[in-house]
Amino acid sequence: MSRKKAKTDKGRKGNTGKKPRSAVRPGGKDRKQKKAKTGKKAAFSAGNNTKIFILSGPGGVGKTTLSNSLFRKKGIKSRVIKGITVTTRKQRPGEAEGKDYFFVSKEDFLKLKKNNFFLETQKVLNCYYGTPRILYTLAEKLKKSLLLCIDVKGALYLKKQFKAGKIITIFLTAPREKELYKRMRKRDESKEIIKKRIELAKKELSSANKYDYVLTNKNINSTINNLQKIILENIGEIC
User: Fold this and answer.
1) What's the order of all strands across the beta sheet hosting 213-216?
2) What 3-state DSSP class applies to 100?
3) What are the mean pLDDT values of the chain's consecutive 10-residue runs (239 residues total)?
4) C-alpha–C-alpha distance, residues 126 and 153, integer Å
5) Phi, psi for 173 (deg, rounded to 5)
6) Pairing verdict, β 52-56 and 145-149
7) pTM surpassing 0.90?
8) How far apart (Å, rounded) are the C-alpha atoms in residues 104 and 84?
């Protein structure tokens, strides 16, 4: 694990609130959001300890497995909410609706975006991805932090939208790039899409130095422990 420029708030302790839902289903009662003024940064509360931890990395590096496993570790579930992304891409075998992603049509996604439902949105390989704004509102209300698995563009965008120290970015890499590309080729996707994914992965890997932390996923258990340590240290807990 290498640390780039993380800002740690020592001495603060996370508070345990009610057990939250991981996310609010798009299109539900929480869908209505106050529209932000164009050209200005969204107004986010500054007087609380809620942090946003962002985990990024190329496809096939193990972000989903790592994120799901992390919430079985001591001290995480009581202090952190798992953010679930809304996407227009097709559901893959083994993925669960409302646990891994919220799967919606392109039409519904664009309606949600128009209604200011998202903190950030990105278009990747002709599919849309978005982070529900209500996740941050819920984390603030429960006095917890938030973990998001989003791409590099989304991470750097949110970093600019929040005050310094609010966003903690973590980049996950594979020990060998060849192994990463091998995993991508095993996916049930066209050769054209796989080629584009590999090109995208190379671009994302070149952005790792812009992150606060870089984790190399050599061993899943060690990586989970390192991620747990990063989160607890940054919310003021001793790990």
Assistant:
1) 2-3, 213-216, 167-173, 52-56, 145-149, 80-82
2) coil
3) 48 42 50 40 56 94 92 94 97 91 98 98 95 97 97 96 94 86 76 85 92 95 97 81
4) 15
5) -120, 165
6) parallel
7) no
8) 13
